[in-house]
Amino acid sequence: MVFINAINSAELIEALRQTDISVPARTDGRKTEHCERWSICRFLATFANTDQIGFPLSIDHRDRPDFLMNVGGSTIGVEITEAVSENAAAIDAYREHNGIDGPFPMVHHHPEDERLRGSQLVEAASARELGSAWAGNAPEREWVEAMRAFIRRKVDKADKPGFDKYSNNWLLIYDGWPVPALDRDFATRVLFESLTDTDFGHFQAVFIESSSFIWAFRPETYEAFPINDLWN
Asked: What is the pTM of this model?
C-alpha cells in the first residue's frame, strides 16, 4: 500500500500536514499502526529539508521492515519500534481503565523485567512509594541500557529469514522509556560511545525520537535534529 508520494519537500510537507497522526490511549483502541504512522510522519517532517532523504520519494507501508522508501532510485527500509516498558504500559493502562489518579512516583524498570500480572499489577498500579532512589546519573545509565536492549532486539529480528534488506536499512525508535529528569545530551553521548559497528547489525543508521529531537546515530557519528512538528 502506497503511503505517500512526493516529488519535492514542499509536496511532502503538504501531504504530511493532511495526515492524521493522532494516537489513541492504550485503553481506547491504540494499535501498532497508530504508533508507526506517528513515528514515520514526524520523522519525514523533520528530515524533509535535509540531506537525510531525497526526491522523488514514495513510501510504502509493509512489514519486516515496516516501511519501504524509494528515493531517487535507491531503496531504504525503515523498521520502527517503541522503546517502552511493558510493565509501565500495563500499569498506565490499568490506571486509565480504573480511573486511578496520580501523582505517582517514577519507579525503575528494565527491558527484561518479568511481566506483572494479576495482583502484582494491581499492587504496582496503586503504589505511591518511590522505592529505590534515583541517584547520580542513574536515569541516564538506565536509559542507555534500555536503548541498547531495543536496538539489539531489532538487530536480532533483522537477522532472521523473511526480513528484507535494501540499499539502506534504518531503525527508528520512539523513546517512551520512563526515567526522571533525563539529561539527553549526556545520555545520547554515552549511548553513542557504547555502540560498536557490530551493534548496528544490518542497520546503517539508528534514529531515536526523544522529547523534541530525533537523534541520528551512525557508526562514525551522531547528531540531534529538532522535530518539525507540523501538527501543533
From this structure: 0.92
